[in-house]
Write a structure and sequence with these properties.
Elements: E1 9-13, H1 17-28, E2 32-37, E3 50-53, H2 59-68, E4 71-74, H3 81-90, H4 97-103, H5 106-115, E5 123-126, H6 129-139, E6 143-147, E7 157-160, H7 166-174, E8 186-190, E9 194-204, E10 210-212, E11 216-221, E12 224-230, H8 236-253, E13 257-266, E14 271-277, H9 287-290, H10 295-304, E15 315-323, H11 330-333, E16 339-343, E17 354-363
Parallel strand pairs: 1-2, 1-4, 2-3
Antiparallel strand pairs: 5-8, 6-7, 6-8, 9-10, 9-11, 9-13, 11-12, 12-15, 13-14, 15-17, 16-17
Helix pairs in contact: 1-10, 2-3
Bound molecules: adenosine monophosphate.
């Protein structure tokens, strides 16, 4: 297995907070980092060794970037296909484009889950207003209409409580504009009456070995992650089933890197997969302080061809996102020895903007 030597450079596509935390983990292992993204003075740029501020479509900038790095990974999955193809033909990209392609599109993602025998909420593809009519008849209500691509934190989603909401939901996700041709535009999903939401994060090395973090229990407020708690309130069999799904998914994608799978646990104890992301995930931030090795270091190890390590948890933890003006709560956390603070270097606490998070630890139960 080829291992990147100390001082080698890890390229990171995307320069938000996940990139920032990847840079910090890379530095601990003796690597330089070079981040690439469109935003100036970004959270990642502040701590990276080097930075390119350019559009993902700027091939000249991508060429300079790929020549300057030894391997490329990414902190978000909506990398344009053209950028991913360009980088793949010029350098080593971990994880590969295939994982991105599946995770970028909710329909491909659901078909992929079916192919590895992992259940999802009932769903139906929707490309036209007429399709929506048929989908509502098939799936019933309540249901959620979601754009197939580029949705996050509840953006591009509209709830349909009864059939009469279909017009408003269609208007909400199309913005009243004609739907572009090409891939199917949206998907209608049955609304799941869940007992809780969980996620599993697994890492897979160049040699195919997999390590898997424990599931966390996630609470969303206004569609955005608010807290992740470990241990999740699920039994051992449910936790194992959830981890098996994440590991099957990684093997099927032959993925080198990280995979986060978000799931619903239904009131009758079944697991339904919601979505997945082949990158560090907000619901895995608890690993920074509750485990010997966190999700960011596992990804850097995988990308660099280093061995992965047992991610056993040594403490119970609650990760709380600091969104917008929540940032001012750090003055309380600063005097709490159980609180481990991670801020992203953003200056303006706009509503809905993730400014940081805090991991509050308790002795392991
Ligand atoms: P998503 O962007 O698909 O992860 O959705 C964000 C959040 O909306 C999820 O974490 C859930 O809290 C909620 N949600 C999304 N889809 C469904 C569904 N089919 N049933 C119930 N809640 C959902």
């Amino acid at each position: 297995m080829h291992r990147l030597p100390s001082g080698a450079t890890i390229g990171i596509l995307g320069n938000g907070q996940l990139g920032r935390m990847l840079c910090l983990a890379a530095a601990r292992l003796g690597y330089r980092t070079h981040v690439f993204g469109p935003d100036k003075d970004s959270p990642a740029e502040q701590v990276a060794t080097d930075s390119t501020v350019a559009a993902y479509t700027d091939e000249a900038a991508l060429a300079r970037f790929s020549a300057a790095v030894d391997v490329v990974t990414f902190e978000f999955e909506n990398v344009p296909a053209t950028a991913a193809a360009f980088l793949t033909s010029h350098t080593t990209v971990r994880p590969s484009w295939r994982a991105l392609e599946v995770a970028q599109d909710r329909i491909k993602e659901k078909q992929f889950f079916a192919s590895i025998n992992a259940a999802t909420p009932p769903w139906h593809p929707v490309h036209t207003r007429e399709d929506l009519e048929a989908a509502v008849k098939k799936i019933g209500t309540p249901a959620v209409l979601k754009t197939a691509r580029l949705g996050y934190d509840g953006k591009g989603q509209a709830k349909i409580k009864s059939a009469s909401d279909a017009d408003a939901a269609w208007q909400a996700i199309t913005g009243g504009k004609p739907v572009p041709g090409g891939d199917t535009f949206a998907v209608l999903e049955g609304f799941v009456d869940f007992r809780c939401e969980i996620s599993v994060i697994a890492a897979r090395g160049v040699d195919g070995s997999i390590v898997c973090f424990e599931p966390s229990e996630n609470v969303h407020t206004n569609h955005m992650l608010d807290t992740s708690t470990v241990p999740a309130r699920i039994d051992a069999a449910t936790a194992k089933t959830a981890q098996d799904i994440a590991m099957r998914a990684m093997k099927a994608l032959d993925l080198v890197g990280l995979l986060a799978v978000e799931m619903f646990v239904t009131t009758d104890g079944k697991i339904l997969c919601n979505e997945m992301a082949p990158r560090p995930h907000n619901s895995g931030h608890w690993t920074q302080n509750a485990c010997g090795t966190d999700q960011f270091e596992q990804l850097i190890r995988a990308a660099a061809g280093l061995p992965l390590v047992d991610p056993a948890r040594h403490s119970d933890a609650v990760m709380k996102n600091l969104v917008g003006e929540d940032i001012f709560k750090i003055y309380t956390y600063l005097t709490d020895p159980a609180a481990h603070i991670h801020l992203y270097g953003k200056t303006e606490p706009r509503p809905g903007r993730k400014m940081g998070h805090v991991n509050i630890l308790k002795p392991k139960t």
